[in-house]
Design brief:
By secondary structure, this protein is an all-beta fold. It has no helices and 35 strands. The two termini are about 15 Å apart.
Length: about 400
């Protein structure tokens, strides 16, 4: 079969294929605790990006201890500076994107949370950029108030500000401008956005007319309320990844906080319990299914960050029955013999990974490994010869691939 030569821009494929992850296991997630450093063992993990970098705060854990902002990257902690003129213990990170931009809040020196000026911030290139919505007018005590909660890879930031009547309003900051964010269908002044993904989907919380705090997902100009099944009147959504997986926390019937994962209508409790009863707050999730948050002992004497890694590889695929699944970008495949899958066109493949955001396969017909992901497929990176391939969708027996290294078609 003679195949036409493709004139495709190889420049579009200049992305680095990551190292292979371990195979998926049956448990929904695994937990790893963040114990901080010898000087700062009390850790609060607030946000995580797609490189696994974590932003948070840590301290010695003693009474009146100085809390410092940190970046945890490649297994090491890096202490970050406080915002200029920030009051002690007030610089708090809440979001991080893939460029390393961190957003959060701080109070100016000499003020506090009840009568002082609060600013959001963007920290990037070792520089703090204060964020203050122009509609954040002084209240009766002369204080202004703006918070920055989440940031995506396009630099869009979500948060809230207060007006002169001390009523809170949500905003979306993009392209250098503050823009109003729509209020959820509840009480005025209660919509608080906490996270935004690269699709522009936003999560947060609001209070309904009964005074119950509910989580929300805002997608396609529509609000979806999120209520954890065991919540006793309070659910807060804090983070969302590009796969639409949402994390947050709720208060249970015993008055304790529990973390949660929401995916397509299904809730999973995230519990980082390590010693007796306590409180778990999930605050961020990346595209690989890594969830960060904080566990606190019931008496408040111990505080540790954690990373929960989701291990169900095909959790975002649609189940179409009898072991068969469908992904809009990858097609139809059978998972009955998982981790082996049988793809409708590609045939037998052995899957490695914990998320469809990054997939490695052993391909017995090629006798080699190849990597792909959503947004890259049908382009593949083959490990053995370091070649990028273009798979001709639907071809089977044989399958046809264009090799950008040899500039020729090959069949397998």
């Amino acid at each position: 079969m003679k195949m036409p030569r493709l004139r495709l821009a190889l420049a579009a494929l200049l992305v680095a294929a990551p190292a292979m992850a371990g195979r998926a296991v049956a448990s929904p997630y695994t937990i790893a605790m963040l114990y901080g450093t010898s000087d700062n063992p009390a850790v609060q993990a607030c946000a995580i990006n797609n490189y696994g970098d974590i932003a948070g705060t840590y301290s010695s854990g003693s009474a009146n201890a100085q809390s410092r902002m940190f970046l945890y990257s490649a297994g090491a902690y890096f202490t970050l500076p406080d915002a200029p003129n920030a009051a002690s213990n007030s610089t708090s990170p809440l979001g991080i994107n893939d460029s390393g931009g961190i957003v959060g809040n701080y109070y100016v020196s000499g003020s506090n949370s009840t009568n002082g000026h609060e600013y959001g911030f963007l920290y990037c290139y070792n520089t703090f950029f204060p964020l203050s919505d122009p509609n954040a007018l002084p209240d009766s005590q002369g204080a202004t108030w703006t918070e920055a909660h989440g940031i995506n890879d396009q630099g869009a930031i979500v948060g809230v500000y207060r007006d002169s009547r001390d009523i809170s309003y949500p905003y979306l900051y993009a392209a250098g401008s503050f823009n109003p964010f729509p209020g959820a269908p509840g009480l005025v002044g209660t919509t608080i956005p906490y996270g935004i993904n690269n699709n522009g989907d936003v999560v947060g919380s609001y209070s309904d007319i009964s005074g119950h705090q509910r989580g929300f997902l805002y997608s396609g100009k529509q609000f979806v309320s999120l209520d954890a099944p065991y919540a006793a009147g309070k659910t807060v959504a804090t983070g969302i990844n590009d796969n639409g997986e949402v994390v947050g926390w709720y208060v249970n019937g015993s008055g304790n906080q529990e973390g949660f994962l929401w995916n397509g209508g299904a809730f999973t409790t995230i519990d980082a319990e390590i010693s007796g009863s306590g409180n778990t707050v999930a605050s961020g999730i990346n595209n690989s299914g890594q969830i960060v948050g904080t566990w606190r002992s019931a008496d408040g004497s111990l505080k540790l960050g954690f990373v929960a890694t989701l291990t169900a590889l095909w959790r975002d695929a649609q189940d179409i029955g009898s072991g068969w699944k469908w992904l809009s970008w990858f097609g139809i495949f059978d998972t009955t013999s998982s981790p082996w899958i049988y793809h409708q066109s590609l045939g037998w493949l052995y899957a490695y990974g914990t998320s469809t955001y990054s997939l490695w396969f052993w391909d017995p017909a090629m006798n080699d490994f190849w990597w792909t992901r959503q947004g890259v497929y049908p382009y593949l990176y083959r490990a053995g010869d370091g070649a990028w391939l273009y798979y001709l969708r639907g071809s089977s027996n044989p399958r046809w691939f264009y090799n950008f290294k040899t500039l020729a078609w090959e069949s397998r």
